[in-house]
Amino acid sequence: MSEPWMKFYPRDWRGDQALRAVGLSARGLWIECLCIMHEAKPYGHLVLNGNPVDGGTLARMTGIPVDEVSALLAELRQAGVLSVTGKGVVFSRRMTKDHARAQKGRKAANKRWSQVPGDVEQSGAPNGSANGSPTTQKPEAILQKAQQVGDARLLYDKLIEAASARGQCHEKLAMGIGQITDLIAQGYDLDRDILPVIREKARPDIASWKFFATIIIQRATERSAIPAKVAETAPDWQAWCSAYFGGASWPHGLGPKPDEPGCKAPADVVEQARKAAA
Fold it and tell me: DSSP letter at 169?
């Protein structure tokens, strides 16, 4: 059974030059085909119950005349939007590639989580020395550990989903997520601070979550130190310089940086902020 939803990126859709080369009717037919292919097996192929969807069937499914369907499919094929297998089955290159990556990521995730220890069976041997009290674990502690493992898996799934948003996920990212859980413990917000950075910066060559953690910290620091819009009144040079020498980025609207020629901040303010940071 397929997922009740599928990934759709408006920017990629509108930026596809082949798709922009066809008419609006052809694009409308293609999105209908994508929806059908999302429910199909194999995924991303224009089939129904294992059989290729012919022009007549597609016409009935979309409510478009048969002759118009044939013309629109020809237009899509000529522009290179759709592909056809050796057996004449229409398929989407993007959907099949994304599905293959998702399957690969899912296998890596299952392998990673298969290593998480489950319930430990009690052996016949005592769990303490003969002369001491048995070492037992309280039931509430066991439940808490189970909840932590469950929460960690949900978090991991969200992180992998974000890293796979553009088909960039690398299976090495299946390793520990301690860098991210540490950020959450420090107060960084998952939806606001963490996931957007992962979606934007994911690349196949990244093998550690530490790469994202560094950028997440930098972005959050910039947001906390720099307002959304630089005030049109005279800048608070003392505050800006102190933030800059404290590690924050220098807003483009304020001109050259304090350690660059032509900085508009008063020299005495810059020097005072530099000494305070040192």
Answer: -
Task: Report the C-alpha gap between 206 and 195 in whole angstroms.
Answer: 15
Let me know if residue 111 belongs to a domain: yes
Tokens at residue 77, please?
């094929």
Which tops the pLDDT comparison, 150 or 216?
Answer: 216
Which residue is associated with the tokens 């790469």? 211
Average pLDDT over the chain reads: 79
Is there a domain that residue 145 lies in? yes
Report residue 190 as tokens. Answer: 């998952």
Q: How many domains does the chain divide into?
A: 3
226: left (phi over 0), alpha (psi -120 to 50) or beta: beta
pTM: 0.43
CA distances from 151 to 138, 157, 165, 195, 253 (A): 20, 10, 21, 16, 42
Residue 19 sits at the vertex; the CA angle it makes with 16 and 24, to the nearest 5 degrees, is 135
**Domain end among 224, 240, 257:** 224
Identify the domain containing residue 20 by its residue range: 10-91
- Could you tell me which residue, 96 or 175, shows the higher pLDDT? 96
